Amino acid sequence: MPTYPALQIDGADHDLVLAVVDDAGPLGAEDRGTSLTVFFQTPTERSVARAAVAQAMPHATLTDREIDDEDWARRSQENLPPIVVGRITVRSTRSTPDPLEVVIQPSMGFGTGHHATTRLCLAALQRLDLGNCTVLDVGTGSGVLAIAARALGADRVLGVDHDPDAVRCAAENLALNPDPRGGNRVAFELRDLARNALPSATVVTANLTGALLCRAAPSVIGAVKPGGYLILSGILATERDEVVTAFSRLQLENEAAEDGWVGLSFNRSIHDTV
Ligand code: SAH
Asked: What angle do CA 236, 242, 243 make, to 5 degrees?
């Protein structure tokens, strides 16, 4: 059975620990009262986190642990704190009927809101008036952006992903977010950006990678209706210029940065009809 590197922290403020280990890319955290266990992909990431916690909280007790629990991801992510980005809150369980509270179950689908790239998109979506808009979310993962777009007023939303597990997981998350305005206005489809043409929408979101965005730029641009908007994320600060060049047919309207990641928002001219 595979084991997963984890770090157990006792005697420290849990929120502070989570903030300090964030740079090491934790996969999840499990809160057990006085102790907090944070899970990592690799022992190297754990060492980076350990050093950061030791420096920030010299009085905390740190213990390396190897976890052989197949369900560790679900168990640990269930305890991740809610994420608030503007008007949207992303949580693993519902606390209010407010549709702006987006419930995303921890699972294999990327996008619990705990990654800066997702947060950059959630913030960018709120800069737009989504009323009457159609939205296409390319690489939907957990479906978080698609579900949030509908909650923010979009008329119709389609999320696509090339990973069948993501599509299944997005549909499961959709069921946890009843639509207050009714109707089946959010859908998820299996589609590979590299192989299949994308349907067009007024607003397109694509939280992928800088390299993939550059390669797929013509297809992504083609999916944005003239006069519409494109929100890109998953771009490292070092990839920013290359991505802006690949999308130079569009007007760069806004950019934001978080944790070394860049989010870019573009407008496609209403006259750009070819
Ligand atoms: N939109 C979510 C998830 C982003 S992670 C969020 O913002 O948090 C990126 C997602 O893109 C993954 O689910 C991955 O499966 C998907 N993806 C990667 N390459 C793709 C491709 N060629 N076509 C479609 N989806 C792709």
From this structure: 70
